[in-house]
Design a protein that fits this description.
With about 300 residues, the protein is an alpha+beta fold. The protein has four helices and 15 strands. The strands form four sheets. Strands 7, 8, 9, 10 and 11 form a five-stranded antiparallel beta sheet that branches. Strands 1-2-3-4 form a four-stranded antiparallel beta sheet, with no helix packed on it. Strands 12-13-14-15 form a four-stranded antiparallel beta sheet. The termini are far apart.
Length: about 300
């Protein structure tokens, strides 16, 4: 549920509002549809219709992005099913249960856990776009520019079981936005035109499935910033500690901060890197992203 109160603490008319229970009914859930009813993250406010009235935006644990108007009714074009359409074979038109393609390499299809970022990625003063990450995870080479760090992760046994999660940019009119020519449109998919061109983008997830929900895919909320190159860029990270930046066309990269920390510590202490990487303690720390405590005795 989402609640709204006035300045005197009185519940506003038509509130609370709720997610659609059909999307998280018992018959929907399976390994590829790990959905639940409810909202985990905070709501955001945005004038999605350009009428001077703020709408309420929230990510649902049923894999839908919701938006409600001030009178409690859904904003036009919402909710939006958030799952990569290029990986989808079909969608049940009643409950939006997703069937993935045989070649999708899906590891799990699941919830939305982060608060959407609000901003116009292409500049201007019109209704803003909505940027959010997903818990969904797919097998494949992690989308990360690791450089020399790739060897470190290989020694630690991390890179071999990595994958990618997804970050989305959604039009302010959601499912009402017309699909571009050639956009993926699998049978039953309710909103083939909802995502900006080039989105979703992949973001590296080096240790998929570490923990349910909070340890899967993207769980940190994106942030937006203007740069001298792009009108706006979004930045977020996966639960396994990898941060990425995506421009308006969806080009993404990632940095492995943990491995950089290991390198820095080894340089400062003048310790050989190879024994540390081969050590069982560090292997477990890299695999599970625990805080590293280096204890050294004389």
């Amino acid at each position: 549920y989402v609640y709204a109160w006035d300045a005197q603490g009185k519940l506003l008319p038509h509130f609370p509002v709720e997610t659609n229970p059909v999307f998280s009914a018992p018959g929907v859930a399976n390994p590829d549809n790990r959905v639940q009813r409810g909202i985990f993250s905070a709501a955001a406010l945005a004038d999605l219709q350009g009428n001077g009235q703020l709408d309420i935006v929230a990510s649902g644990m049923d894999r839908h992005l919701y938006a409600w108007q001030s009178n409690g009714s859904p904003a036009p074009g919402f909710p939006v099913l958030v799952v990569n359409p290029s990986k989808v074979a079909s969608v049940n038109p009643v409950n939006n249960q997703v069937t993935f393609t045989a070649s999708s390499d899906v590891m799990q299809g699941t919830k939305l856990m982060d608060t959407p970022a609000v901003g116009n990625l292409n500049g201007g003063s019109g209704p803003p776009d909505l940027i959010l990450g997903s818990n969904e995870q797919y097998k494949g080479t992690p989308n990360a520019s690791l450089g020399s760090l790739a060897g470190i992760l290989k020694l630690a046994g991390v890179a071999s079981d990595g994958g990618n999660s997804m970050v989305y940019a959604v039009y302010p009119d959601g499912s009402l936005h017309p699909a571009a020519a050639g956009a993926p449109d699998p049978p039953g998919y309710p909103n083939p035109g909802a995502f900006l061109p080039g989105w979703p983008v992949t973001i590296a997830d080096l240790t998929p499935g570490v923990l349910p929900d909070v340890g899967d895919g993207v769980t940190s909320s994106p942030a937006l910033a203007s740069t001298s190159v792009q009108s706006g860029e979004s930045s977020t990270g996966t639960a396994s500690g990898n941060s990425g930046t995506a421009g308006t066309t969806g080009t993404a990269g990632a940095t492995v901060l943990l491995a950089q920390l290991v390198l820095q510590v080894c340089q400062e202490l003048q310790v050989s890197l190879v024994p540390l990487v081969q050590g069982a303690i560090l292997q477990r720390a890299l695999r599970h992203r625990h805080k590293i405590l280096l204890w050294m005795s004389a």
